[in-house]
Amino acid sequence: GIPANDPSVCSGHGLCLAQEQCQCDSGYAGATCEEIVICSPGSIRSCYTGPPSTRSVGVCQDGNQICNANGTAWGDCLNQVLPQPEDCFNGLNDDCIGGVDDGLDEDGDGFTTCDGDCCDATGVLCSFPAEVNPSAMEVYGDEVDNNCNGLTDEDPFSCSSGTSFSSDTSATKALEMLNAMDICQISQNGSWGIVPGSYSLTRATSTGTVDYRQVAVMTQFGTDASNLPREGENMASISSGRARDANDPDATAAHSYLYVNGSPPADFVAPHGGQLPQTSTSCPNGSGANDAVMLTVQLKVPSNANSFSFQYRFFSQGYWNWTCTQYNDFFITMLDSSWQAGHGQTPIPADKNIVFDMYGDYISVNSQQFFTVCPPKSGYPCPDGTAGLNGTGYTLGPGGGTLWLTTSSPVVPGESITLRFVTWDTSDAQLDSLVLMDNFRWSTDLSDGPVTTD
Predict the structure, then answer these.
(1) In angstroms, what CA-CA distances link 252 with 72, 209, 394?
(2) Is 29 exposed, middle or buried (0-12, 13-18, 19+ CB in 10 A)?
(3) What is the pTM of this model?
(4) What is the pLDDT of residues 370-398, one digit of tens each?
(5) Residue 210, C-beta contacts closer than 8 angstroms, at least 6 positions apart
């Protein structure tokens, strides 16, 4: 035939360069010109067909390959251990990524499959996996198990019923009041909710203790249907006098109840030169925070929440004779959050208060936009009448109040925020005020800044 070393036909290692079959000097019987000798027949080598980054990590290990009898190919990789889905309870690194029993976090939401993330990658029932994990809140009506608890579209809000007028002002009572506001879930193992041990009932400063009659859990305030809870069966109340209506134990039967003088929160007045701000641009500012009561809580924000809202109703005995004077009571809600306003957005105020009207006025009798439940007088048309005062004890001044107002504010998903709900008497301890609070809700909706609406 043709010489095996003819370069027009065969290469020196047995590669055939022509269509004609020929016997090349491959050194091994049976190897044809079309075949390349790549290994020594019967030899063994290590092999691994998994992702290179997982080789010799965790349980993953090499296998063996044997060269075939012709020396032309390696056999299958036998006895290798490849990555497997993580078994979260066997003490091994099964997926050969990260550590032991840690699972994957493909969506980057901070929760692995071993942390209970029920949707770590896009699928038929989970279009947005980064928004589904044990630290997410349930989004009612979207037919997704957002919080990975095995349930879909459960109502996460109501968790309290009945009244509480007990003499307790401890953390237990503070938690009862938060529950009445529909702030229910306790943060555990990185989930969202109330940070354990973070809730309390105090004065606006550390001076003095709250009188138990200044706080309550109610099922109704007064006799008018407008003062029923906004969500669930009850609501919380704080007062610089008595958080009671005319029919409750220790009923509100006077204009004023005196407890202790005090000061407002230091970080509230600091941006105002250490003084109370004006409740309205045309009204004088007062001083002090007497008979104050403050409900404080730290909350871990759900990983899919961009904002929150709550509802409240403010009443004051100081309406008729003391509007636009230094004797003007406050209701403020202070928010500590890492949220920062972008272009065109409204920042959280420097004094941290997020409850105010469209004119920037604080919630008080001087907010003519919102203080609308009252007997009319000059400058106050009181378009919402007086029915909301019936049976409350706030007809004595005569007093007045607002409708239910709703404040919403942005937050950063997954952050921890602190909320302080505070009311007090200003400049003296006379003519008390009271606030109803209810229907706290997280929302996936984006917010451009704090806002209050009626």
Answers:
(1) 98, 20, 8
(2) exposed
(3) 0.81
(4) 999 999 998 899 999 999 999 999 998 89
(5) 169, 201, 202, 203, 293
